[in-house]
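pasting for the record
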Amino acid sequence: MAWATAAGLTRAPVAASLAVAVAAVVVLVWGWRRPLLAFPAAVLVVVAATCGWRLTAVESSPVTLLAERGATVRAEVHVREDARVFSGAGGPGTVVPVTVRVVESRGRTWRVRVRATAFVEGSERFVTGTRLLVRAGLEPSDGSDEAAVLRVHDWRRAGAGPWWWRWSEVVRDGVRDGVDHRGDQAAALVPALVAGDESGLSDRTREEFATTGLTHLLAVSGANLTIVLGIVLLGLRAVGASRRTVLLAGVLTVVAFVVVARPEPSVQRAAVMGSVALAGLLVGSAGAGLRALAWSVVALVVLDPWLATRPGFVLSVSATAGIIAFAPPLARRLHWLPLPVATAVAVPIAAHLACLPVVTSLSGEISMVAVFANVLVAPAVAPATVAGLAAGLVDLVAPALAPVPGTVAWAAASVIVRVARLGASLPGAAIAWPWPWWTLIPVTPLIGCGVWWLLRRPALAVGMTLGLLVAIVRTPTPGWPPRDVVVVACDVGQGDGFVVPTAPGEAIVIDVGQEPGPIHRCLTELEIDRISLLLFTHGDADHVDGWRGAVRGREVDVLADGPSGGPSVPAARRIRLLAGQRVKVGGVDLEVLWPRADTGRVAPEARNDASVVVRATVRGHRILFTGDLGEEAQRGLGRLNADLSADVLKVAHHGSADRWEGLLERVAPSVALIGVGADNPHGHPTSAVLDDLARQRVAVWRTDTSGTIAVLDRDGHLVVSAR
């Protein structure tokens, strides 16, 4: 109840908080002798009062008022979380969560204490606690918990933070120094496991961890603290330490953990959830653990009501509840396995089921390898975390010896990275959930019941597990991928996704469909592990939203789009394409034929007609990709280009009736490809388009009836293969 109330009130006016608080007080006074009424009412009073107070403080702050006027100010800010560098169209930038302490404008000075987010040009390193003096332009914030956004014009350091922040930075540097001699992604993972420092991780590694359900390892989680806290407490118990000593050591460990990992929201969650999970396991009572978890949720949403709507908080609470409530009975159900193995299997199953609806709401996919991946990496997580922390501590007194535990941490982290890379590369690593995410709320308990029934039958459980593994791995299909490919139309449902190979294992990808799963499977089956050029013809969802599947486990050299833009995909370089440009990628020549060179930014409703039209020449064959151009834009394309001839035509807009009949005559293709979903609500491809193609004697291939389609070169002639 406290959770839902906080989630609702942080998005509502202050008056709503006041109304809820008054109503809760009335209930509390009326039912103070009835604990079932009085206790929830008291909690609601505290939560509503906290939300109202925080919202009022932000709304009435001088910083908020100055931001509404777009004022330029001088301010003193304190960095509240480590800065993060991002890549923008104009170069790198740095985003810094800050607390504004002093603000000055037009001769007036205010002492305040409100949150804000600052944007600084260039790649800068600001650590928690640093004091900065800035001159910045203020803009209103989109979040109700922040007073403004600061666009920093110039800045200087006013001082470092307190000694404990400086000490923690030395430890974090020591962790990095202990593994720097390795210099790969496993070395970059160790600081993430120990202190949540994922700055060295590549975008490819992040995508691989997301696909395999290992993302929780990249941010500080309750598991990190549980490992460190468990070793400290169990070690003290082993030497006969008193209960008071054990308790004191536990508190100090939690405090040190928060300081080293930074008191960010994820760390606050980790400190509470890790302590709760360990307490639940030590007590051995699911009821006690769940009660502690409930109190923790109340405490956290009172301290920071905005946590209630953050995905990380929801996932953290869900996973912790699942582990406490379901892991022990699942482990007992697996009595036919050795206890350590049964526990290692039960914990990820419980966490995965508890988080399934939430994860699907965020990604649109269900990871099929998450449980397997978590079971495989579980033995490596503790050694990597503990040895990495040891490297940081050893570096304080004997820097020359830090690489010794650092190498142990690197070796364990290497196992985790390899599992993530292998799991993400499998064709069936994840499947798209075609219905709204909330439909999984009733489905998940049914899945849980099925798992519960299955685990009691060892032979059937092992058989089903092996069958699932076969489905995930998907043994190779003879003759696929074919040789001498000119272009492939991937079956991505109602959308476009095309692949033009440029070298062994490399390709140009033009559009990616709406869901990440289909394009990932298509590229995996074609054995593409590097995207030389990723081109978004325009920004509609059925052409761009599946980009995470395209880049999953793959590097992108160049990202290209047109005036309608597209998502900010991790890539080495980004370019904008307009008519008249030519691009050469490997042995493939690309001519940009549309839109006009003077086309500016376009409105969402005009995206189709601003589609990037390119003609690719592959093995001497021309392929014309026409995006979603409508009739008027197709006529404009014809006026702008005297020669539109091509051997293969990607039919515009999935075969929409909004077409110019003269385009087909000008192109004169022998093969037409249509990316379209079965039984789509738009009636694509229309009978008019199919009739036009039939009159011109063009061979028509559709992804809704033929699946993935490959156009091949055979001794200078085009042939088509489908699967």
